[in-house]
Amino acid sequence: MLGLEVGGNSILLVNLDNHIYAYANECPHQKSRLSEGALMEKTLRCARHHWEFDVCTGRGINPKNSCLKAFPVTIESRDILLDLDDNEGSPTESAPDRETPQ
Ligand code: FES
């Protein structure tokens, strides 16, 4: 699990069983950084008030009516490409060259 800035967006990357998921690094409750939370198997827990999310779907577990903002991910060679849908004509940003997030 890794938090990083990409194209002016704070992004959370999670590598779960060699599948990369990308979400806005902002809890839908009170906007804490989700990268400061904990990953327990497929459950992401916000550090601040312990809301929980399914990393595979972004859907809330507790509470169920919450949801993370997901970004489509494409892997090309060793690059992780994110479709940030930024409405500025460059919808795809390449994540900085870093270690693969865990
Ligand atoms: S800010 Fe994440 S649960 Fe409250």
Provide the fold topology.
Layout: E1 2-6, E2 9-16, E3 19-24, E4 38-40, E5 43-45, E6 52-54, E7 60-62, E8 70-71, E9 73-76, E10 79-83, E11 92-94
The chain binds FE2/S2 (inorganic) cluster.
Residues 27, 29-30, 32, 46, 48-49, 51 line the site of FE2/S2 (inorganic) cluster.
How many E-type strands?
Answer: 11
* Number of H/I helices: 0
N-C termini distance = 5 Å
- The whole-angstrom Rg is 13 Å
Q: Catalogue the unreliable spans.
A: 86-94
Structure, briefly:
The chain is mainly β and 102 residues long.
Question: Can you offer a commentary on this structure?
Answer:
The chain is mainly beta and 102 residues long. It has a single domain (2-94), classed as Rieske Iron-sulfur Protein, CATH 2.102.10. It has no helices and 11 strands. It has strands at 2-6, 9-16, 19-24, 38-40, 43-45, 52-54, 60-62, 70-71, 73-76, 79-83, 92-94. A 4-stranded antiparallel beta sheet has the order 1-2-3-8, with no helix packed on it. The chain has a 4-stranded antiparallel beta sheet with strand order 4-5-6-7, with no helix packed on it. A 3-stranded antiparallel beta sheet has the order 9-10-11, with no helix packed on it. The relative contact order is 0.23. The model is unreliable at 86-94 (pLDDT under 50). Bound molecules: FE2/S2 (inorganic) cluster. The site of FE2/S2 (inorganic) cluster (FES) has 8 residues, from loops.
